[in-house]
């Protein structure tokens, strides 16, 4: 799943005009929504009760009792056998919240384009309208009590039509058809009959593909078209409490990662393109979880396409968002990076699973024989297939399990998250051991068991090297070292690239408001990571001060996070009236460069001749310049309070410290310990690390 980045930003006036226009329609729509919701509460008795009885599907099988229909009968048997393993949420709360998507759809009819912030406001408004009136959760109903024989029959007919009329039909095995074209649902969304109209719409669309008779070409073309018109929106992920169904996503063209990928897959399947929903439960070296990938199922499966080795390579085409390296951007040599830093190009992957309609026999056996209190939510359903090796190099490892944990019957490998260790792999415990297959390398794992919501460590954390060797991380007895820390999370390449926007820029002073008499105070000749302090060797006084962005090829708008000019009093930066060639994009005006906040930044809307500065009102001698590029604020910041922890079967504190400079020093840190630096002043982007030759090595 990809997102497209656009640098054009609407002006303040245009965005306010758009908002005023949209708010008029929103008011009308929300009044109608309130009335509709009220009627739904008042007339709930007229809503048909969902069946609690298992439905008979013999009539579907009877339709396919002729020899020429044997494949369709096999397909029917496949669906019927697996119906009870799937379920969706139904009820008044979901019907009420469908007003969100109806409102967005209505607004879209009256305006050219409904921007995401308006869609978010509609969601908020309808949630507020129904606050306290919605049930705590929907009513989960299994498909064998919801899907009618007629629905199943029509689904089979349309799925076969899509498959058998596709130019690539001969390259698709019947087993792949059953798993990746035939199913009427992707996840646990409400069941809908989306195939007929979707088939017709996409059949017309794929004629414009570069090679409309080739499976890969059609997949790439259709997937790109759908994703470019459907917004990936994390706000809906946090606010909307259910999985969006197909029709609601079609109306709003917005949703969380799971929603947009499932929507894309349904569209692909509608025209006979075998597509799967692949799933990364948690990244190995970031705090992000639940990432979904749209995967084309091809006859020839490519395996071991990349590894977790941190290298300047682009893996986006294999797993989107897995790499931020760009060949067109600068490759930073070690001598161009501050000492003690390393740039992280790759997001490591511990496991990749595929959602299937059929069951995984291993997970089925675990769920049928192991008490549910010992099984995490991720593995409580059995329709997951481990496909890690289709993507990357991996290992098979054995972990010893102490006797006191064997009664839990299954063990897990977990990866770190600021919210606690997250399980990503499961294995039966047998004779004091657990075997884990297809495990991603270069990741810190914690072996554990699970009991009623609690992760219980069973051994020391460890990582796998390139030779598949396990390295346990245990602090040595009475061995300590002095440690200097400069960050609380890795420096990812997408942050490092912001320094390109400043190299070649310069600071100038002048006494003419048009800078006709400008003198260069400092030229940026390196890649300036974080706050830079420059002593000015110039005795002349200046009234006008500015930063001039570099010229030449640019990959992002000119931007800078902080500029501070100092006179004889180096404890207080100089103040003045903001001046500049452009005001800046929405929310990123000139003031953001002078607000003493490294988390904000100025961003230009112009493509060349960009400069910003201040008019002091009178001439002053400049002694010092401080400046900082756009950044992630994960470096040590003066004034912030930090606490260092080390792992000893649980996180133990080594004490709190308030930073006075851009690094922290701890005198007595256990040798070979797994560490975590937590910032109590704000921000959640923190990662665990070890110390290797005095440098923080991130996991």
UniProtKB/TrEMBL annotation:
Q: Which residues form the F5/8 type C domain?
A: 583-664
Q: What protein name does the entry list?
A: Discoidin domain-containing protein
């Amino acid at each position: 799943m990809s997102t497209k980045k656009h640098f054009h930003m609407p002006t303040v006036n245009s965005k306010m005009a758009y908002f005023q226009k949209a708010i008029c329609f929103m008011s009308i729509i929300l009044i109608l929504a309130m009335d509709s919701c009220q009627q739904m509460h008042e007339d709930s008795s007229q809503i048909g009760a969902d069946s609690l009885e298992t439905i008979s599907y013999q009539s579907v099988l009877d339709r396919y009792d002729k020899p020429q229909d044997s494949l369709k009968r096999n397909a029917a048997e496949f669906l019927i056998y697996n119906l009870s393993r799937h379920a969706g949420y139904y009820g008044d709360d979901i019907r009420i919240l469908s007003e969100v998507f109806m409102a967005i759809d209505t607004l879209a009819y009256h305006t050219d384009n409904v921007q995401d912030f308006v869609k978010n406001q509609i969601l908020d408004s309808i949630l507020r309208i129904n606050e306290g009136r919605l049930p705590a959760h929907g009513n989960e109903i299994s498909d064998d009590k919801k899907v009618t024989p007629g629905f199943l029959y029509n689904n089979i007919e349309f799925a076969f039509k899509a498959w058998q009329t596709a130019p690539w039909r001969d390259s698709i095995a019947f087993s792949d058809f059953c798993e990746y074209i035939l199913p009427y649902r992707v996840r646990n969304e409400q069941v809908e009959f989306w195939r007929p109209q979707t088939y017709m719409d996409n059949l017309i669309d794929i004629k414009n593909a570069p090679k409309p008779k080739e499976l890969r070409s059609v997949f790439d073309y259709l997937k790109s078209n759908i994703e470019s018109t459907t917004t990936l929106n994390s706000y809906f992920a946090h606010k909307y409490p259910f999985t969006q169904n197909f029709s609601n996503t079609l109306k709003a063209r917005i949703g969380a990662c799971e929603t947009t990928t499932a929507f894309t897959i349904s569209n692909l399947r509608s025209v006979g393109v075998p597509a799967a929903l692949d799933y990364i439960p948690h990244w190995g070296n970031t705090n992000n979880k639940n990432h979904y990938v749209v995967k084309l199922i091809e006859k020839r499966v490519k395996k071991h396409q990349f590894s977790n080795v941190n290298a300047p390579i682009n893996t986006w085409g294999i797993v989107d968002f897995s790499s931020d390296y760009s060949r067109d951007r600068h490759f930073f040599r070690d001598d161009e990076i501050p000492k003690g830093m390393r740039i992280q190009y790759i997001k490591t992957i511990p496991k990749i699973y595929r959602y299937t309609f059929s069951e995984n026999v291993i997970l089925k056996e675990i769920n049928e024989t192991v008490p549910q209190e010992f099984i995490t939510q991720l593995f409580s359903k059995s329709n997951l297939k481990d496909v890690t090796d289709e993507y990357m190099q991996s290992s098979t490892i054995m972990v010893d399990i102490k006797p006191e944990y064997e009664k839990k019957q299954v063990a897990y490998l977990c990866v770190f998250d600021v919210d606690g260790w997250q399980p990503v792999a499961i294995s039966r415990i047998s004779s004091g051991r657990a075997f884990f297959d297809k495990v991603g390398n270069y990741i810190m794992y914690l072996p554990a068991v699970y009991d009623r919501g609690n992760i219980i460590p069973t051994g020391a954390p460890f990582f796998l090297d390139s030779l598949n060797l396990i390295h346990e991380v245990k602090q040595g007895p009475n061995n300590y070292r002095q440690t200097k820390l400069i960050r609380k999370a890795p420096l990812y390449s997408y942050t490092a690239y912001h320094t390109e926007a400043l190299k070649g820029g310069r600071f100038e002073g002048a006494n003419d408001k048009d800078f006709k008499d400008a003198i260069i105070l400092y030229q940026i000749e390196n890649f300036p990571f974080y706050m830079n302090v420059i002593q000015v060797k110039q005795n002349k006084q200046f009234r006008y001060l500015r930063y001039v962005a570099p010229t030449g090829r640019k990959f992002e708008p000119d931007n800078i996070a902080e500029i501070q000019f100092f006179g004889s009093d180096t404890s207080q930066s100089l103040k003045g009236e903001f001046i500049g060639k452009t005001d800046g994009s929405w929310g990123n005006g000139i003031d953001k460069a002078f607000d003493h906040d490294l988390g904000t930044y100025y961003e230009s809307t112009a493509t060349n001749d960009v400069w910003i500065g201040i008019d002091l009102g009178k001439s002053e001698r400049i002694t010092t310049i401080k400046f900082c590029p756009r950044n992630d604020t994960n470096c040590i910041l003066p004034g912030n309070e930090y606490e260092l922890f080390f792992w000893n079967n649980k996180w133990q504190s080594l004490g709190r410290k308030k930073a006075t400079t851009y690094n922290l020093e701890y005198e007595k840190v256990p040798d070979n310990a797994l560490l975590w630096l937590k910032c109590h002043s704000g921000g959640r982007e923190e990662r665990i690390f070890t110390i290797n030759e005095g440098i923080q090595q991130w996991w």
